[in-house]
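User: Sequence in, structure out. Go.
Assistant: Echoing your sequence, followed by the structure tokens.
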Amino acid sequence: MSRTGSTTRDRGARRPAARRTGPVTPLPDRRARREARSARARRRRPVQIAAVLLGLGLAAWLLWGSPVLAVRSVRVDGATMLDADQVREIAGIAEGTPLLRVDVAAARDRVARLPQVDSVEVTRGWPSTVVITVRERRAVVVVGRPGDRSLVDASGVLFDTVTGDPPAGVIPLDVSHPGSHDPATMAALGAIVALPRDVRDQVSAASATSAEDVTLTLQDGTLVRWGTSDDTRDKAAALAAVLGQIEAEGLDPADTIDVSTPDAVVLR
């Protein structure tokens, strides 16, 4: 025991904390805060909606009515026989038309009506170009009399007229009723198209009285009896083989080469 009459244990004991006597601030009410945030969001919503509508309206104007994305040029690709200006005129696409308002399907249909056109594609080239890609018909034969002759493609379509000499590689064809619905025309075209390029270059003329009687004439005067429209690939291969042997002097030249039965070619 100490002199003061208190023990060490008594001196080490904690004294109770003094109570605060000032005012106590209450915690914010969570519901009130949520309602405040909701109220602020409701006040901002009309502004946000107006901004979205304004952005949509601006985008629509840019695409449908603005000169910024309007047609400034119409490009024509693939035209060789056709004049590009003629294709543009037929397409009917006016410069200054908003690009999105260009009726590409209608323009394609108009260009496709040109006889020289085999197929056509019309596309938008952003931001200001329309591209017309044309694939022209390729002449395989020419029919008719000099001064009034028509070019014919592999599908039998008469698509252009020539008054002078036909283009290089185009073979004169003698048929009574040329056209895609004429069996004789289609049989002759099938024979010519089936020939290898080097053999076709040797053909100077063709004729067909019917689909069963196709005849080719070579530049040296040799007559090729083709016969029907059957087995065109085998006949073409047989003719190429015979001509190769004649050129190599393995066979004597003949006035007539009959490949109507390709497994048994006859030379006369």
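User: And one key feature?
Assistant: Residues 30-64 form the longest helix (35 residues).
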